[in-house]
Each structure stands twice: as structure tokens, then as C-alpha cells.
Amino acid sequence: MSMDSKANDPMLSKLESVCSDLKSLLQTSVSMETSLGKMDKKFDDIQETLTMASKRVAPLQSLSIATKALDTRINRAVSPALALLDSFKHSEALQGKLLELSSKLSNCKSPKKRAKALIKYVDCVDKLNLAINSVSQEGEPAIQKLQEVVEFLSRTKATDQYREHRLRDTLVTLKALYETEVDAMRFDGLLDEALLNLQDEYESILQQLRHRNLGEAADDSPDEMVASDLGSESEVEVLRRISQTLAANDCLDICIDIFVKVRYRRAAKALMRLNPDYLRNYTPEEIDEMEWESLETSITLWIQHFELAVKTVFVSEKNLCNKVLGNIMDGVIWSECFVKIADKIMAVFFRFGEGVARSNKEPQKLFKLLDMFDSLEKLKIEFAEMFEGEAGADICSRFRELEKLLVHTSTKVFWEFGLKIEGNQDGLPPPQDGSVPKLVRYAINYLKYLATDAYRTSMAKALRTEQIWKAGILSKPETDENLLKDAISNVMEALQRNVESKRSRYKDKVLPYVFAMNTYWYIYMRTRNTELGKILGEKYMKKNYKVVAEESAYLYQKQAWGALVRLLDKEETGRLNKEGIGVPLRGKVEAFMKGFDEISVRHRSSYNIPDVDLRGQIKEATINLVVPAYTEFLNTYSSVLQEKSYRSPQSIEELLGQIFDGSDRTGDRKLAVSRRDPKDRSEGRNFVSAERSSDMKDFRRILSTT
């Protein structure tokens, strides 16, 4: 191939160009390899240098890490110590403020300003207590940590001796300060003095909280008795705050002792204004020695004062306890404090009531016992709410025991009343004039009073309660009406047996009938149209008393006047010889007149029919029996009896009227007047007239002697 053809061939040109580039690239690679060799040698030199530097720096790095760890450990120990010192400074500042507030408090005379100053004083005491508690709680951990650091430095020699010595001196000083100052601040310092001041203020404020005049409350009806609030809101708030502060400073026992002691005295003093001197006599023996009028008054006052104490004094004291102590120990302590206040006072009331219930079972005590029982029944729900919970269990138990004792005693007094009547224990003979005995008058008035609204319900409830106790809760007791009716019927039957016993002791033939007539008529007339009559029933009263009185009246007339009228019997006169009839007829008339005079004398001296209505009926019946027979006899034999004058029928009728009208008998007039006395028919507490009051006293004396 020619040159020109090579030069013109493009492929060859490209190959030459590529060959030239490859040569250049190879030369560059050789040059780069030489440079990389030099760089590798330099890196080896640097690595060697770094290795040597690292070996030289490693001890410094360990020292730096150890220094940081030591710094952290020291800071952990010093920081609590610094906080402890700050707490000491804070408590010292609070003590200064407490002294300032104490000075201001002593200069406060106004109650409102003093209450506000006391609140600030209590706040400062609380803050001081918190500060001292903070010192107490932070002290031991701070000292412990500081001691650990000192021991560590001493063991590891991590610092020089100078710094270690200073840290050890700081530890000793802080430990001594803590051990001496904390106890001093808590028990011997201003906090202790402040707590003593608060106790004095606490007692002083409690002393100032007084009950309103109970003498005025005693005049109110039971429904109007309202308890008053003790103290203003500010006073109660101060007491509440002081109670919480004392409790927080381990003075809860002292707080409770002060509260109970002061409030008991205040409550007792409030009740002492009512002059309850009767409470000093409380044993059954002392009760038995009291005069009845004095005992009756004492029981009335006991009922009134007991109710007043529960509804006013104790309500106020309970509210105060709740407001002042209600937030302490989750509200557990205040109810116990209230029970402690009320317990001693209630014990005095209970022992008097128990003494009355255990004293002699005299009949007249029944009504006062029922009054006591009724008052407890009315207070039962309120009393249970007042002393609810475990704290008041003992007082509630004693309340129930007293009520149970009153129920038992009331029923026993009533049953024994019937037994005494039946046993004729009045020790007196039957009335010599056949009048109504005092025992009967007393018993009827007694039962009439028992049957009134004031006592009927209470007596029935007591009888039902006693029956349930004896028969068991599951038994089915009779209704109150039937229980009371049966109980009263038993007494009435005992009274009837007593009357029959006295009736049999008369030696005179007429007096038993006069006595029975007077007595049964009295019972019937005084009982009908009364609550007692309604309980017993009209049928019962007629059968047992009215019919018996009418039969006795008939037998009285037959025994007293029948023999006299038989002297004038025409059948006996018809059998006489007509020729000699004058002498016997005159003898009959004279015998009639003599018997009439004798009967008249006995009626005037020995027979007494005090009831005006009964006496009028007997007079009318006697006139109808005697006068017609005498008139007929005179008219029949007038021709034979003309030789001598005899009393006319009108004269006989007038004499009979004088016998029964009792115009010359002072006693009859008194009876007639007393019967018409409206007081004698009244129902309620004033039912006893002067005559009945005397009867009750006599019967009371008789029963006491037997």
C-alpha cells in the first residue's frame, strides 16, 4: 500500500490516536503509583504519630472522667446539706415571725380582731411545724450522704488532705447542729411554747361558749325546745384550726382532754342552773325516805330536765364537737368526745330513774312511773340518733335498761295494787255506818285516773311490752285494749272480793246490805260515763255492780222494814177473836211505833247512805212500802183504834223523810255537797277533790305501815 493510501485511511488514524492515548495513560498510572506509594508512607508516619499521642493522652482522659464522677458525687452530698441549711434559715425566720404575731395577739382585745390574729398565729405555727419537720426529715439523709463522700475520699485519696479535712469538719458541724437544734426546736423552742399558748387559747375560747338560759327553755313545750348554736363562726373556725394544729403536733390527747373537760363542765353548769338538787338522792333507800309530794315533784322535774338535756344541751354539744373535731382522724374521734361529755351527765339522770324504779312499789308511784316511761318512749328515736354508733352503745344500752326497768316496775306496781286490795291489807274494819270505805273510793279514783288519755296508752304499752318479754317476740300478744281491760278487771274483781270480805264481818243484820248497797252503787255511779266505764263496758258494770247494788237495796228494805210492815199484816189480824180484837190491834200499833222508833234511831246513829240520789230512791221505796201499809191498817181498824190517838200516815211519811233526808246530820250535808263538787267529776290531773286527796293519803299511810 502506498503512502498516500495510508495517509488517507481513517481507521489507521484512529488506531494511532488510541495508541498514543494508551501510552499517555500508562505514563500517568506509573506516575500516580509513585505518588500513592509516597502517600502510603506518609499515612504510616501519621498513624505512628497518632498512636504515640493516644498513648500519651489516655491517662488524662481517665483522670477527667474520674474528676467528673467525683464532682457529681460531691454535689449529690452537698446539695441536700445546703437544702438543710436553707430549712434551718427558714425555720429561724418563722420563729421571728411567730414572736411578732404573739406580741400582736397579746394586744388584741376585740373578739373579731383576736380571732383573725389567732388564725394568723395558727398558720405561722403550722408553717414552723412543717419547716421543723422538713429539717427533721432531710437531716439524716443529708448527713448520711455527706458522710459517705468523706469516707470515699478518705479511702480513695481522690483529693488532697486539706479539702478532705474541710469536708470532714463540715460533716461534724452539720451533724452536731442537727442532733441538738432539731430536738430543741421541736420540744424546747418557740414551737413548744406556741403549742402551750394555743392550748390556753383553746381552753379559754371553749370556756366562753355558753348555753342559753335553760330556765327559759324549760318553760317551752317539748315541741318548742330548740338547741342553740355555741359560738360564732369565727370562734368555731379558730377552735377547729387549733384542734388540727395540736393534733398535727402530737398533742391530740391533750386537745381531747381539754375539750371534754371544759365542755362537760359547761354542759353540767347549764343544767345546774335548773337547781336539780333532787338528783342527790338516788338510791332506793333514799327514795323511800322522801315525802311523796317531794318525790312527785322530783320525778316531774327529772322528766323535764332529762328531755331538756337531750333536746337542747346535748344537741348543741354534739354540733360543736362535729364542727371542731370532725376533720380529725377521718371523723372518728369527735363522736367519742361527745359521748365522754354526755356520759357523766346521763349517768346522774339514769341512776335517779333507776332508784325510783327500784324503790318500794307503792300504788301512787304508778302514774309517775308511767310518766317516766312515756317520756323515754317519746325520746327513744331522738336519743338513738343522738348516741348512734359504737361510741354511744353503752349509753343507749343503759337507756334501754332503764326503760325496761320502768316497764317491769309499772306492771308490778299495778298487779301488786290488786293483790293488796284483795288481801284486805288496809288493816281497817268495815265502816261502822255502812258507808263507802276509803279503800273503794281510792281504788275507783285510781282506776279512773289510769283510764284517762294521759295514762291509758302508756299503761297498755307497758303491759304489752311485759307480755312480749315473757312470752317471746314470736308470740301474738293481745290488743292494747284487751290487755288493759283484763288488767283493770282483775283489780275490780279484787276490789269486789275485798268488799265481800268486809261485808261478812258485820254483826248487825242490816248493815251488810247498807254497806253493799252504798259501795256497789258508788262504784257503778262513779264509773259509768267515764273512760273507765267505757273500757270495762256497760254490760259488765251493770252485771257486777248495779244489779248487786239493787239486790242489796231490796234486801236492806226487806231486813230493815219488812218485819215492821209484817206487824200490820191483815191476815194475821183476821185470825184474832173479834170480841177481843181491840187489845191486840193496839198492841200491834204500839209495837209498830216502837219498832219504827228503834229503826229510826239506828238509821240516825248507825246507818248512813251518803249518796243523795240513792238515799232519795231508798226513801221513796221505803215510804211506798211503809206508809200505804200503815194507812190501810189505820183505815181498816179505825173504829177499834179510836180510843187512842196514833201518828197519822202523813206524820210517818214526814218522819221517814227526816230519816233519809238527814236534815239534822252534818255528815250527810257534806257528802251531798262533795258529790256536787265539779272537781270531783273532773278527768285529768286535778281529778282528786279534797275528800279524795285525804283518802289517798290515808290509804298511802295504811299501805306503808303494812
TrEMBL record:
A GO MF label: phosphatidylinositol-4,5-bisphosphate binding
Keyword Protein transport listed: yes
Sequence segments annotated as region (Disordered): 667-692
This protein's UniProt keywords: Exocytosis, Protein transport, Transport
Domain of life: Eukaryota
GO cellular component: exocyst
Family matches, as Gene3D superfamilies: Exocyst complex component Exo70 (1.20.1280.170)
Signal sequence, start to end: none
Ranges of biased composition (kind: Basic and acidic residues): 667-684
Domain spans labelled Exocyst complex subunit Exo70 C-terminal: 302-656
GO biological process: exocytosis; protein transport
Record-linked PANTHER family: EXOCYST COMPLEX COMPONENT EXO70I, EXOCYST COMPLEX PROTEIN EXO70
Function: Component of the exocyst complex.
Family of this protein: Belongs to the EXO70 family.
Protein name in UniProt: Exocyst subunit Exo70 family protein
High-level lineage: Eukaryota, Viridiplantae, Streptophyta, Embryophyta, Tracheophyta
